[in-house]
């Protein structure tokens, strides 16, 4: 019986060529699987047909947008997940949901191998392969670009030679990955890290310097989940989509950073994530109101580790599950409204309301109604500082 | 011999009244000490004379601006210190330098007690008293507002009865603390955390929504220290002052947050810190280029603890010293130029240059010259993910 | 209506005197509540009657031994909780369960206040009062020894004057707190930290230096819960009790340490916790076999924070609940058998067996059957070490 | 010009065969380098001659025992470095010092490559190669056992065919690595993790169950450095050697654990490290007396990361250097005497003395002389527990 390979298929030139390339390299039948995580672009049926036209024995397409939003983006919001304090893990979050569909297809079709279109120097190869290994330890992984030296030029030649129904125009100067949670751009001239990005690289966001009216939005959370925008009920997917539009129109969510890749190198990356940044900003502000201090302090460390793990491709790892245990418990009371002004590239919280609030007006106020017992402070200070004071007596001596 | 009390003197109504109030409560002689940490306002000589006119037996004023910048603000920049990920510790940084001057004055003048004007429900009382205890474990601390019930109304009545040379106009609606590193504002109507701040609360920053030309600035660091701006050599103090002006003019550095106080309550705070935010943003970006990944990941945790410790008033603690050991070592190679665009409330880094850079174009590029050996990745992924894979074999079983 | 005070009652001299003392100081009626956490000693009914004889208007006794083992000791075992890496939190664990019963009694009897017998310089006052505040924020707390200057001498005089039915013999040289999870001893001559403890201070453990036969025990865990000993099913309480006996007989579980109290001072403490130490040792060894590496590494940090929180009296805090979310998830697969040799003061694990094991003989063995693909290592090493290598190229240059 | 390879040479069969094997595989000249880290065994001159007899073009031997103790073991003691809370990093510490000598030899002799005898599934290959990459990024690394399939059987055949002057007796059942800081043993029958070790596997330690007299030792530290034993001045090397003898004679320092290797698998390891365990135990006890609480709590996390980094072969990494900055600062006051009883496999601290002590008898005592101001506690407790109390009011509502 012929071996079968499931291929992560995008509909573009590279993975279209992969279908035939893998068949030639391995003699296997190729099953193309395309997963919609909100990347936009062509219709899924068109993509499906192209895979078949390019030689796939089977082609499957899945609308995973709600699944992606609910099971991958939402945990990231709950964890305020920002790698290096900035990057909301756009691509890193989409890989595990794609992996899930690839593995399901492999099991359904009796494939022994999963193929993806990544190169050998990025993070995504790790996220695909470690993910696949963690969901189906018996599956093999191949990456034609990395393992079979399928360069861009060779891919174009292959497509032309075989008459594949796919445009082989010269490569765009941009290498792009996008989904509903954001968009990543790499391009040659930004590999000189002194060069500034130009407007041309952006698609999800307008120029923040352009004059326009501010947009004020109220986001309602229930136990960490965004459930309404300006009072209208939304799914998580809808929340992200609406905020992509509104925050994107105000130039919110652009990032320009030098990033530490898992494979040990630093790379320059441009991201746009208007919805993600708006949601996380609002969620953090609501946590400031509803999460107790010591839990908040510890959660910041957990958030960092969560983001690193997911960045590093360990979504399906035991540590990720245990951190989720913490994060979910910590989000139990993160309910209420956040008012946020989107304008000029900024997402600024200026109002919070919550019936789970720990902000106590009567303890906080300096006006009438103050219930804070200031006579307690003397004792607190004395004992809080005692171990430092004892050390000082020694160290100054 | 009469006891002596050193008072942290600001020149304002409250601490002017404190001079006589303390004398009446304790029978001690009061020595007023005013420390210039860049808070602006009246001339130090005027303040000094007022203290004497209000009954101080001695009055000392100290220009501690460079000391504050070099020994307190700079370590905060090296540690990218942002409490709750936002607040650059403006007031928290100034307390220890003031404490140092108070303690020196107490030792010089044979005082047994130090007094300050804080209330009993804020962080500053802790910072003053734990700091004093740590530099001079034998000194006593008093706070007339907290310990002798010196309310605002009683202070006004006292000033008028004694004919003190100080205005007793009705209290401003704002409670303000400011120094060269930033400005903190509290005010009654913002104690309703749903209310948005109004332009009137700001002084260090212009309205970010006002149309104006962007300002591009290049900040040069040497081992974590800002040493030049646009190629002109600067002291740390000059760097902060110039960036306060330029970033402030662009509306950069406004913060509106609900904060976890050390005394256990949440409070609403408005901050402006244009220079601090610009410097820390630039410093972080340069670290991204010059600090190795594992060190960078660990440093983020150290930064959080550093900020919490300083916020909590433990500047002079043994842990703070040991964390500084880490932070200084980590800053050894943080040298180079950062280009940053100040505009519309944003401080956006868009260029980095460093001869200590760890960014390696040839490893990062996808173009000609790529030296990354992609054949290594297969083995890396297999072993990097092995422990997760073994766990998966069990957990899926 | 007369105010009512619930008193944490032990049956000893101090708390017996407290009944009348509180009544005199406050005019309130006193309700005595004794909680059995396995401290041994007198019958609960005897204690109950004595409380009434000493003037309590009500007296309640509760056998909380299983509750203590299941809900307080067990989480500590799952968290391998050892404060300062050594102390299994014996007293710190018992306070919250006692607090729960005190608060329940206060609510049942309409009391406004809870009283306890602690001094003002230890950890237990914090654990009692913060616990009570967290379960019933409206209750007041009093501690006659601390708040009403009820010294030992005065207590004896009071007891004699009132003819209380309690022995007023001279105080034992030892200050002891004990429960089923262990025993704590403080005594004057050990306050000189150069002095060694003498055999007389120990009760739960035999002298480890005495020659005797070793005892080998197999402890079975299911998801972190000890469920059998030598194949016999046990409750958690039974597991602790049996191991107290068997490990205690071998001198296991003695601790002599200088400890950092929450109130800022260091104190010398002697502990005996044979069952706790045996259980935690076994549990750790089983985790080494069943918990994936990254989870195991992170859990060590969580364990430390868990132990500090509980030591610091924050059992009922939000952070504690979130850490439990992590710890429980991490214990999901901690199932299997640990063989442990108890002898000469040592508890030495020398065998592990688990059907949830992640130890893979075929990957680990150097003999026939080795399935580890060594060709993967080259790539792993190259990329794992790449960021260090790039930094080295710079730093050595 | 012929290429040159520097080989880490032990004098044993495997590395003796490597000399000729590498020459045949690569055509290079082989330079043998043996480093004495206290592993005992043959005289260095004998080893040197054997290398030459086996075909090395040059052979160097270095007595690195003091260097190893001072620059590698001592930092581990200061960091109380115990991987997984148990293993004192015996082999992990020796690799970097050997690497330093290999790199120096390579630079001296113009070699392009360094070779070592490790297999492809252990930690040591990583430690060698990442270390070499970090000290000399231009050097290549080879491992004949891993890269050229040099199995034990083939090695014996090679040695016999070439008449190498080395015994080719059947392999010992034990795979051993040892140095002055300890000894590691792996062996086939212990790969079944239910099997207990037998006395035969141990060499550095006597059976702890054998009856004998206890040995009491006083170790003096100065700023974290062991400087005297029983009042006699010692070097670090002498301290380790003497404690190896005395603690080893009492059966102290045996470990039996399942360990998480860097390469992703779990392995069963037996260690003996009597001197290391005695020193770390004493050092920890002295820290308990001389290190302030918050510093002590944070240092435990730093220690864990330090041990993981060194275990993982990242001795020469930037993070390691920054952690050392912390650890050295934290050890500044760790000076004084620790009395420790070595007996029956236990190393029990029972006395501490230090003129840098933070233990304050007058604050700690419950007897006459108590200076602790208990009236401060009420305020401390109220404010310390306030954030939990506010959360409780919400959560119980």
Automatic annotation (TrEMBL), chains A, B, C, D:
Pfam name, any one: Arginosuc_syn_C
Reaction(s) this enzyme catalyzes, per UniProt: L-citrulline + L-aspartate + ATP = 2-(N(omega)-L-arginino)succinate + AMP + diphosphate + H(+)
Domain Arginosuccinate synthase-like N-terminal: 4-165
UniProt pathway annotation: Amino-acid biosynthesis; L-arginine biosynthesis; L-arginine from L-ornithine and carbamoyl phosphate: step 2/3
Binding site for L-aspartate: 119, 123-124
GO molecular function: argininosuccinate synthase activity
EC number: 6.3.4.5
Domain Arginosuccinate synthase C-terminal: 174-390
Localization, UniProt: Cytoplasm
Subunit structure: Homotetramer.
Record PANTHER family: ARGININOSUCCINATE SYNTHASE
Family: Belongs to the argininosuccinate synthase family. Type 1 subfamily.
Protein name in UniProt: Argininosuccinate synthase
Gene, per the UniProt record: argG
């Amino acid at each position: 019986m012929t071996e079968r390979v499931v291929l992560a298929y995008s509909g573009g030139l590279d993975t279209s060529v992969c279908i035939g390339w893998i068949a030639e390299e391995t003699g296997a039948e190729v099953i193309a699987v395309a997963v919609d995580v909100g990347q936009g672009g062509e219709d899924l049926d068109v993509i499906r047909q192209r895979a078949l036209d390019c030689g796939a024995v089977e082609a499957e397409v899945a609308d995973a947008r709600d699944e992606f939003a609910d099971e991958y983006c939402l945990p990231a919001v709950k964890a305020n997940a920002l790698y290096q304090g900035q990057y909301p893990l756009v691509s890193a979050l989409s890989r595990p949901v794609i992996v899930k569909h690839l593995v399901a297809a492999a099991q359904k079709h009796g494939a022994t191998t999963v193929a993806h279109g990544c190169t050998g120097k990025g993070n995504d190869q790790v996220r695909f392969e470690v993910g696949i290994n963690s969901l189906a330890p018996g599956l093999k992984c191949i990456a034609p670009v990395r393992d079979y030296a399928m360069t861009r030029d060779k891919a174009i030649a292959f497509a032309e030679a075989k008459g594949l129904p796919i445009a082989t125009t010269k490569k765009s100067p941009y290498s792009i990955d996008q989904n509903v949670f954001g968009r990543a751009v790499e391009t040659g001239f930004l590999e000189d890290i002194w060069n500034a990005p130009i407007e041309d690289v952006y698609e999800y966001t307008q120029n923040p310097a352009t004059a326009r009216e501010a947009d004020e939005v109220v986001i309602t959370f229930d136990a960490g989940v965004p459930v309404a925008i300006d009072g209208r009920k939304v799914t998580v997917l809808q929340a992200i989509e609406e905020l992509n539009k509104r925050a994107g129109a105000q130039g919110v969510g652009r990032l320009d950073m030098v990033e530490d890749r898992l494979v040990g190198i630093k790379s320059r990356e441009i991201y746009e994530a208007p919805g993600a940044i708006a949601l996380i900003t609002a969620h953090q502000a609501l946590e400031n109101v509803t999460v107790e201090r010591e839990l908040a302090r510890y959660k910041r460390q957990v958030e960092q580790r969560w983001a690193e793990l997911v960045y590093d491709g360990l979504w399906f790892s035991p540590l990720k599950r245990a951190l989720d245990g913490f994060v979910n418990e910590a989000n139990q009371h993160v309910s209420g409204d956040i008012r946020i002004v989107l304008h000029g590239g900024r997402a600024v919280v200026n109002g919070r309301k919550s019936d789970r609030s720990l902000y106590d007006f009567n303890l906080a106020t300096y006006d009438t109604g103050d219930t804070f017992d200031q006579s307690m402070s003397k004792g607190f200070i004395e004992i809080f500082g005692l171990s430092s004071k004892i050390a000082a007596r020694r160290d100054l001596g």
